[in-house]
Amino acid sequence: MTQVAGRDTRSEILDKALELFTRQGYAGTSLRDIADAVGFTKAALYYHFPAKEDLLLALLDPVIKALDALVTGEHTHPASLLAAYLDFIIERRPVVGFVLREPAALDHPALAQVQWDLIVRLRDRVAGPGSTPDDRVRAACALGAVHMAVLSIDPENLPAARDVIVASACAALAG
Amino acid sequence: MTQVAGRDTRSEILDKALELFTRQGYAGTSLRDIADAVGFTKAALYYHFPAKEDLLLALLDPVIKALDALVTGEHTHPASLLAAYLDFIIERRPVVGFVLREPAALDHPALAQVQWDLIVRLRDRVAGPGSTPDDRVRAACALGAVHMAVLSIDPENLPAARDVIVASACAALAG
DNA sequence: GTCTATAGGCAGATAGAC
DNA sequence: GTCTATCTGCCTATAGAC
């Protein structure tokens, strides 16, 4: 287990950082806050992450990669894509809850465009090929329905609500 | 116009502050940023707003009051309430875009609970009296559909999309 | 109503001991 | 890998001139 200590510490830092970032925002969270939460000093953080921004990137990178995979993947039916997106979000609820709000992530030069492009590609795939502008509006509504449901429902009730959410999002898509 | 100068300056400060807060977040925006944007110094801001937090409150207070009025108001049909909520958001798009993200607003002791209560009351009124848990999930979806649509659609196209959004949100509500 | 000047604190980041 | 100590700079906020 000595060899795993490095990874454990790193993961623990990321966990606490995510928790604080979500609650207070990226800019509103100091490295001291994170260090205190983990139980050691600011300086020690710098061994694991050379800069504050690296925490943000380490948190978002896997989400972006996974979303890219989802959007690029082979879901032929809008309904199955919506369901897959819902599962994707449920699985990563904490990070997603953070990303959807964080101005720093939306403002970040390297992240903002990537995320926006992904969300637009997802919307357009949900809308389907040959979609009209109105179709894309409804697709955006469907995605919004999924977001709001996941973020506002008590996590433990999510599994039970899953099918209701998918059905509601599909209904929004159909208009 | 001399008498109006005070109000104009105040409004201008709030406008710029909102713009910067939305882009960079509350914590990520310094009073210097705002002062520079308005065209005078930090210290001058303090004449109009005794503390940074007062900018936040001045921005959110009218929105909260208006939302409270909307939720308390007499919209008997879920559809008319959803439409009214959409119009409410369209009318205040910039502030709402800010509120929906800002951790500082959600974390603020005096604001967080109030806002959350309002959103829950709104959801429950949309769900209607005697609603089941599933009804409330669908109501949350409907609200999310409205949010996402308004925030992702180019503002100038919103009037044209309005009816599509309402229809889509109502469909989400019906399931 | 806006300014200059500055207090006082905390931020992110680094150096180097252990 | 984690520590202490410290640098530098920006932050909010205040005092007081104009």
Structure explained in plain terms:
- The structure is a homodimer.
- The first copy, chain A, is mainly alpha-helical.
- The mean pLDDT of chain A is about 95.
- Chain A has ten helices and no strands.
- The longest helix of chain A has 21 residues, at about 50-70.
- Chain A has two domains: about 5-50, Orthogonal Bundle (Arc Repressor Mutant, subunit A), CATH 1.10.10; about 60-175.
- Helix content of chain A is about 80%, strand content about 0%.
- At the A-B interface, helix 1, helix 7, helix 9 and helix 10 of A face helix 1, helix 7, helix 9 and helix 10 of B.
- Chain A binds a DNA duplex (18 and 18 nucleotides) through helix 1 and helix 3.
Notable characteristics:
175 residues, elongated, Arc Repressor Mutant, subunit A, homodimer, DNA-binding, mainly alpha
Annotation field: number of helices of chain A: 10
Helix content range of chain A:
over 70%
What oligomeric state best describes the polypeptide chains here?
A: homodimer
Low-confidence stretches of chain A: none
Work out the strand percent of chain A: under 5%
Q: Largest interface, and how many residues on either side? A: A-B, 44 and 44 residues
